[in-house]
């Protein structure tokens, strides 16, 4: 039963970029069935703001602030979702400063209790140079799904922003895309084995230098977060890179051969999701094709899930 649900739940989320080249999700108009949203908090998570936030700072100063992602689904039963959340601060290359993700977590979010009060079977949270990605499969055993929801909090994150050196107003964006990671992680919501494209409520962050009084900010702390310099399995983090198990390395090699190109930066979380999404999908790389060539793969992912390594964040 586990593998049949993996087959339908993660079909088509992570193929070579050339197969999924497309524009970012369109802006939400208010009536769409599938919606992603990003919000920011400048008071440590006491209040959250959508669409547009203004930071009053002094040139060269730094601030930490909180971000969370949300999902709204008005119909159907959701099996899982994934997204790329990408930051952009074009001004940093000309005037200094910049923005980066320092930690991500699902603790104290709705994702943490999505499976009848417990963790999802697979949760991949990975900090990337230009943002972070998430991939979730709710239940790989019995096919438990999520009914329609509004404002379902999928993740929380901390960001560090350093202001440019000169007075002015500078725009920074946080936007859902399809292009972070290698292979790229698409922003989709999965129902009945089909990947549905959501609309997006992205965030504009205006950094104002010299036009308003610098504000006090309590910063950002996350329980059980995955830091940008760490790789974690489950809820604990360990620094540095972790070698892939031999059979997951074999999956990578097979994927490269199938894709016809070299895939670099392929981490443990990517490999685990790749097994679920590629080898068990209805694509040309089918379960029946892959399994005879790589017998250990099925047992490997099964053992990872059984021993509790379900939050693949490395």
Q: What's the helix and strand layout?
A:
Blueprint: H1 2-9, E1 34-41, E2 49-50, E3 52-57, E4 62-73, E5 80-88, H2 92-95, E6 98-105, E7 122-128, E8 131-137, E9 149-162, E10 168-177, E11 188-191, E12 194-196, E13 199-201, E14 203-209, E15 226-227, E16 230-233, E17 236-239, H3 246-259, H4 268-279, H5 287-290, H6 296-306
Parallel strand pairs: 1-13, 3-14
Antiparallel strand pairs: 1-2, 1-4, 4-9, 5-8, 5-10, 5-11, 6-9, 6-15, 7-8, 10-14, 11-12, 16-17
How would you explain this protein's 3D organization?
It is a single chain. The chain is an alpha+beta fold and about 325 residues long. The chain has helices at about 1-10, 90-95, 245-260, 270-280, 285-290, 295-305; strands spanning about 35-40, 50, 50-55, 60-75, 80-90, 100-105, 120-130, 130-135, 150-160, 170-175, 190, 195, 200, 205-210, 225, 230-235, 235-240. Strands 3, 5, 7, 8, 10, 11, 12 and 14 form an eight-stranded mixed sheet that branches. Strands 1, 2, 4, 6, 9, 13 and 15 form a seven-stranded mixed sheet that branches. The longest helix is centred in the C-terminal third of the chain and has 14 residues, at about 245-260. The chain is elongated, with a radius of gyration of 20 Å.
């Amino acid at each position: 039963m586990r593998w049949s649900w993996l087959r339908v739940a993660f079909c088509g989320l992570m193929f070579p970029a050339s197969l999924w080249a497309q524009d970012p999700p369109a802006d939400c108009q208010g009536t769409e069935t599938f919606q992603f949203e990003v919000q920011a908090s400048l008071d440590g998570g006491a209040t959250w703001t959508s669409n547009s936030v203004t930071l009053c700072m002094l040139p060269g100063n730094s601030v930490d602030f909180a971000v969370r992602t949300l999902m709204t689904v008005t119909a159907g039963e959701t099996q899982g979702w994934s997204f790329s959340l990408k930051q952009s601060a074009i001004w940093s290359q000309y005037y200094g400063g910049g923005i980066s993700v320092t930690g991500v977590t699902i603790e104290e979010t709705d994702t943490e209790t999505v499976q009848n009060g417990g963790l999802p079977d697979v949760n991949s949270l990975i900090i990337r140079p230009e943002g972070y990605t998430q991939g979730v499969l709710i239940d790989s055993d019995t096919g438990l799904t999520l009914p329609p929801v509004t404002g379902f909090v999928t993740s929380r994150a901390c960001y560090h922003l350093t202001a440019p050196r000169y007075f002015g107003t500078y725009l920074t964006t946080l936007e859902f895309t399809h292009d972070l990671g290698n292979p790229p992680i698409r922003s989709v919501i999965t129902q009945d084995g089909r990947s549905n494209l959501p609309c997006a409520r992205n965030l504009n962050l205006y950094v104002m230098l010299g036009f308003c009084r610098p504000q006090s900010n309590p910063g950002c702390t996350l329980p059980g977060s995955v830091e940008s310099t760490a790789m974690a399995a489950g809820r604990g983090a360990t620094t540095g890179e972790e070698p892939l198990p031999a059979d997951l390395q074999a999956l990578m090699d097979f994927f490269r051969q199938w894709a016809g190109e070299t895939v670099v930066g392929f981490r443990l979380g990517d490999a685990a999701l790749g097994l679920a999404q590629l080898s068990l999908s209805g694509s040309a790389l089918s379960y029946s094709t892959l399994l005879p060539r790589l017998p250990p793969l099925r047992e490997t992912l099964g053992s990872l899930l059984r021993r509790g390594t379900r939050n693949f964040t490395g």
